[in-house]
Amino acid sequence: MDGTPLVLDNGSGSVKVGYAGEVEPKVVYSNMYTAVRASRHAPSKAATEALEKSNARLHVMDHGVVTQWEGLVEVFEAAFDEMKVHDPSQHPCLVTEAPFNPTVHREVLVEKLFEELRVPAVQVVHSGALALYATNRRTGLVIEVGDGVAQTVPLFDSYVVANAVQRRDFGGRDLTAYLGELLQRELGYKEALADEVWWTQLQTVKERMCRVATQHAPSSRQDPVQQEYKLPDGKVLDWEQGLLSQCAEALFQPGQHLKVDEEAVGIHKMAASSVLGCGLDIQKSLANSVVLSGGSTLFPGMCQRVQEELQRLLPSAVKAKVTRVAQPMYAAFMGGSILASMPDLRKTFMTRSEYLEYGASFIQSKSVSLTKPHPMP
Ligand SMILES: Nc1ncnc2c1ncn2[C@@H]1O[C@H](COP(=O)(O)OP(=O)(O)OP(=O)(O)O)[C@@H](O)[C@H]1O
Ligand SMILES: [Mg+2]
After folding, report:
1. Å from CA of 13 to ligand 2 middle
2. What are residue 34's DSSP bridge partners?
3. Residue 276 DSSP SS3
4. With a 6 A CB cut-off, is 335 part of the ligand 1 pocket?
5. How many Å apart are CA 35 and CA 48, to the nearest integer?
């Protein structure tokens, strides 16, 4: 596989890594690093001891932004090891990033890849757009909600309409925390959210039992993966429990329910802004081709609910049609895999010699042209 580019979909929750041209990542790694590893970088002896005593693991990223760079390098190294990539200098890397990240973020990412992972060439692309490439469509609106970031990305004829992209900092991790609050409020649970065991249980309940409410409620038989869940104290949560549909409701009213920016609007409003932010001539094509991507769009009822909400916000002549990509958690990887296989795209990678000559900021001028200006409405 020497010379084959690697694709790294660097998500707030997990990193998906594999070779260009493959349909699925080879390795999916939780984007966390253990406190023992973190302790090597702790500022004091006391901090080191405290970290080593706890089994806590730290998130490498927070809402699409890396907060633990040494952790990111370790996660990437571990993923390479598992893939048996013994010599990263043989593999150009295509890495994803959320739109509207701080400029410096991309530069530090590039520096780490060249300096510490010793890769020969790098390209960084926005994750949301890639999901549409994975569906083989050229025009459509991607609504991507992962672990830390919600984004809506309109593409026309394969190009991102940059001025109409929306991003907000909320995702599945916030929903898990909200589910913990709902259990506390409604059933009296007092477990600390920082407790990793409890957190894992909450995440399991969320993924297996929560759904979104729709005008035509999904039947309990076909939709939930699981009908009941036994909590640590023996209490049983069943499918009828109201809080199970309240949790994902926060995707439509994040400012009200999640610990995020109070002004944050729901994914349906972000989607409507993206459609209406594009030229009148393409609004119908975009609304008619909305695709959901990212793990937090996996809730039963999601396509229908987003379609209902979006339709309310669009002119009646602009019909919304919403579907979900086949593998929401891997769609960005799959799009990246397609992109990195294109010889023309490979020519856009920033090389090590360019890095050595011009420094990491040169990546800004190498940004791959997924966008082209489109007239405003
Ligand atoms: N069946 C499911 N129902 C609801 N949520 C789910 C389901 N499966 C996974 N998730 C959630 O999806 C999130 C992970 O999705 P994804 O891998 O797309 O995010 P990411 O790429 O790590 O993060 P981001 O792109 O936001 O930086 C987690 O919060 C996880 O709990
Ligand atoms: Mg992601």
Report:
1. 8
2. 57
3. helix
4. no
5. 9
The reply to whether ligand 1 has any atom less than 6 angstroms from the CB of 173 is yes
- From first to last of its 377 residues, what are the pLDDT tens digits of the chain? 568 999 999 999 999 999 999 999 999 999 988 754 544 455 566 665 665 555 567 899 999 999 999 999 999 999 999 999 999 999 999 999 999 999 999 999 999 999 999 999 999 999 999 999 999 999 999 999 999 999 999 999 989 999 999 999 999 999 999 999 999 898 888 776 667 788 888 999 999 999 998 876 554 445 556 778 888 778 888 877 888 989 999 999 999 999 988 889 999 999 999 999 999 999 999 999 999 999 999 999 999 999 999 999 999 999 999 999 999 999 999 999 999 999 888 889 999 999 999 999 999 998 765 655 444 33
Pocket test for ligand 1, best of 17, 206, 325, 333 (most atoms within 8 A of CB): 206
Structure tokens at 246: 């309240």
Ligand in nearest proximity to the CA of 293: 1
CATH class held by domain 132-170+263-324 = alpha beta
Q: Is the dihedral of CA 163, 168, 169, 172 positive or negative?
A: negative
Quick check: CB of 146 below 6 Å from ligand 1? yes
| In this structure, CATH architecture of domain 172-257 | Alpha-Beta Complex (3.90)
- 150 touches ligand 1 (CB under 6 Å): no
Amino acid found at 2: D
Domain 6-127+330-366 has CATH 3.30.430.20: no
* Residue limits of CATH 3.30.420.40 in the chain: 6-127+330-366, 132-170+263-324
> Which helix (DSSP H) or strand (DSSP E) does residue 97 occupy?
strand 93-97
Ligand 2 center from residue 244 Cα (angstroms): 24
